[in-house]
Amino acid sequence: MVWLGSASHPVDKAAAVALANSIRPWTPPAPAAGDPNAAPPPADPNAPPARPGVGVPVPVTNAPPEMQPPA
């Protein structure tokens, strides 16, 4: 809430400047460090299978004939 003052109740200019200069941006606290010896959480049984890595051959079972290697 901001009070702008009035003719009969003016705002103290020095107090307003001190208040404005005291405002700092809020920074959240750092997250708590986890226990390095704790076991990793169990895998989600409903998660999709992991994608193959780069350069890892992926088997193709339904390749069209024109994509087959030469005999």
TrEMBL record:
Bias type Low complexity, positions: 52-65
Q: Does the keyword 4Fe-4S apply?
A: no
Say where the protein is mainly found.
Answer: secreted
Q: Which residues form a coiled coil?
A: none
Which residue numbers delimit the Fibronectin-attachment domain? 1-34
Q: Does the keyword Secreted apply?
A: yes
Q: Where does this protein have compositionally biased stretches of type Pro residues?
A: 38-51
Which of UniProt's keywords are assigned here? Secreted, Signal
Pfam families (UniProt xref): FAP (PF07174)
A Gene Ontology cellular-component term: extracellular region
In residue numbers, the region (Disordered) covers 24-71
A Gene Ontology molecular function term of the record:
extracellular matrix binding
Name where it's found: Secreted
The family annotation for this protein states: Belongs to the Apa family.
Q: Could you tell me what this protein is called? A: Alanine and proline-rich secreted protein Apa
Origin species, per record, is Mycolicibacterium conceptionense
